[in-house]
Amino acid sequence: MATVWVALAAEAIVLMGAAGALASWARRSNDAPDPIIEPAGQVA
Fold this sequence. Notes:
Elements: H1 2-29, H2 37-43
Helix pairs in contact: 1-2
């Protein structure tokens, strides 16, 4: 059962990292930050 929690935690870390990378990429590509992506970047 512990391996399930480890897998879920690892997946959450990967998803948060992907969300942060997406937010920073969107911030770089646009001079004005996207109002939808910006809060997601703050949460991650």
